[in-house]
Design goal:
Two copies of one chain form a homodimer. Chain A is mainly β. Chain A has one domain: Pnp Oxidase, Chain A, CATH 2.30.110. Chain A contains four helices and 13 strands. In chain A, strand 12 and strand 13 form a beta hairpin. The longest helix of chain A has 9 residues. The first copy, chain A, is globular. Chain A starts with a strand and ends in an 11-residue tail after the last strand. Chains A and B meet through strand 1, strand 2, strand 5, strand 6 and helix 2 of A and strand 1, strand 2, strand 5, strand 6 and helix 2 of B. Strand 1 of chain A pairs antiparallel with strand 11 of chain B.
């Protein structure tokens, strides 16, 4: 039995990204973002949605750059703190012990301990409403060599990314069992 | 040891959405999309990125509406087929046996078998490059009652969503173990 539950902002899975940025004095900040994802292949782009109330919003407007860091499950406590605290009030790198490293490609900090990150130049700013979507062109991806898989790209089983449950169950999860190969296990439905 | 691997369009986790739309003759189509997500709280919005080469792109331009259906893992084969086949060449509902049901809120079909779906009115079209991002205002969410959790919203453990590995490992996954409560387990780092 289905019912209308109103216009909820929920999908599954929600990712857990840590967005890195510098303020005007080059103080590094990081923010937890679960509203975003890849949005274009050519140019390669990723989008993240932020409220103007955040420190990261103003950092990105000023520096026109950001990083999207992908944390592994072992950093779930640090990432949760990043989502609780405000960069305007504290130094989240100092508090968590995570290490900011300046990207060589864009004016933004990377989180050294995380397995990989996208290095982005601000391409477009889309004012939607309470959230502004920053579309970043991905100039490069910096990754731990040991987490690379097919085609030299990050392998989800080695990355061990975090998943966020959102409103219906505000838990963090890891990935589960592998169910099959994409672009393959559905071929049984091909009819010709 | 970290290395630059170039501008890859990869994050983790990638979701697996099935976007529903009608063509001019009201033939229902569905498309697998892993590039998208919630992008604004007020108005409540979700974004999906599509190439102009797809049938769904033209359907959405014409009907100014779409649905974002969240499949559960039990439909991984059907969903994979939806990602392989073209709606211009075949009827993916007929081929898979999935059932199209017209949304009562927008001019777009829902996938009856999936646990919930977002019903969206096209709000904005962002031409980024090879992909166009459709930002849809979420007018409603229709959900199976049995998958609802806290606050009457879909619970990730009951939904059992699909996760896509992307380039480094083109597998489908389910969710794994619960690691802790968001906005809670990171409190140990609060210093005041």
């Amino acid at each position: 039995m289905k019912k209308e539950i109103g216009p909820a902002t929920v999908v599954h899975p929600h990712p857990v990204f840590v967005v890195g940025s510098f303020n005007k004095e080059k103080k590094p900040n990081m923010m937890a973002v679960s509203w975003g994802g890849i949005c274009c292949s050519e140019p390669p782009c990723v989008a993240v949605s932020l409220r103007e109330a955040t420190q990261s919003y103003h950092n990105i407007i000023h520096s026109k750059a950001f990083t999207v860091n992908i944390p592994s499950t072992e950093y779930v406590r640090e990432v949760d703190y990043v989502g609780i605290a405000s960069g305007a009030e504290t130094d989240k790198f100092r508090d968590t012990g995570l290490t900011p490293v300046e990207s060589e490609l864009v004016h933004a900090p990377l989180v050294e301990e995380f397995p990989y990150a996208l290095e982005c130049k601000l391409l477009e700013t889309v004012e939607i409403g309470l959230h502004t979507q920053f579309i970043g062109e991905i100039l490069g991806v910096i990754a731990e060599e040991k987490i690379l898989g097919d085609h030299g790209k990050p392998d989800i089983e080695k990355v061990k990314p975090l998943i966020y449950g959102s409103f219906g169950n505000r838990g963090y999860y890891g990935i589960g069992v592998r169910l099959g190969d994409a672009f393959s296990i559905g071929k049984e439905y091909i009819t010709e």
